[in-house]
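Researcher: Go.
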Amino acid sequence: MQCGLARGRVRRSTEMNLDLKRLLLKSLIAAGLIGTVFALRQFAAVPVSAVTASVRSPSDELQAFAAMEPVDSHVHAFKSDAEFADLIVRLRLHLLDICVTDSHRSFGDLATELARAKDFVQSSHNHARLCVTFDPFNFQQKDFAEKTVRELREQFAEGAVAVKIWKNIGMELRTKDGRYVMPDDAAFEPIYREIAAENKTLVAHVAEPSSCWQPPNPESPDYDYYKENPKWYMYLHPDHPRKEVILAARDHLLAENPRLRVVGAHLGSMETDVDEIAKRFDRYPNFAVDTAARMEYLMIQPREKVRNFLIKYQDRVLYGTDLEFLSDEPTAEALKDWQETYARDWKFLATDQMLPYRGRQIEGLNLPEPVLRRIYHENAVRWIPGIVDSSK
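Model: Structure:
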């Protein structure tokens, strides 16, 4: 994986930048690569250091991706690393770093996870923002709402721009008498009102892909996940709530909180049919979705149907990946994974090239440039205020 720009590089004057560009042009001509120069003219607004980094990278997809000043509105990054921070700068990338309350401790206990996320944001050269969460398992405590609101206010004052609720609400959380607690439960209502009052955004991972409730299917994009995480495979737990019940509660949350901006993570768990997402968009103007970990579902639906959906609702879809950078993960592996994911997704959304997928060839959507700009940048700025520094 290519490393990014050297940290702490001294800012050059305009004259030195022009000299570097001339030198770069001469070098490229000498190498017989003059065509690359014309391909890079779209980067006129990008600092020369970013252009030279792009030249060192063989990926045309990543060069075009960086030109969008992209926002990945769904990542889980809990490790601070200079080389990784350099990659973010080189790609002109902005991130929403999301914390999750998981009783199974996928990312560690919440306090440790939050501290690591804050460290990552601090080390990101102003390229990452924090999405915090709260512990829903305390919902039956007398002062739950009051305490949670107080803690969220403190996090907002420190720079958090969003709040995450996770699939354990609706699929795991229960009352003392065994009733499953849904995302529209009255216990959470004061929290939702506070998020709206603070002009922050709720990121809602509610329910799971439909394959979670279906028999094992090796062709499913999620087959490996449920094979490795049987605790979340609802086909094995028929006593748990059905997906339709959970999504109905989510829809009720949207209706009851019209001033609350909600980004439905993972295509809002309506991944198999964009028509279902469109119905919610038409019904709830306060609802958008991100693409995190569900790009494959867009790939396997009819191309023209997906393309038309993204063009019609181009202001309601945020680019996201669900990529991770965990405390025990080798940096080189993360660098490779992140860059390959960004290059693949760009190729699918922005070109008409063919992509291999599970023995098939998928044609890219070749979306218009204004649509790409909304999906990759503008929608995140609108739906998650503060995710990009407004002073830039």
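Model: Residues 184 and 253 are 5 Å apart (CA to CA).
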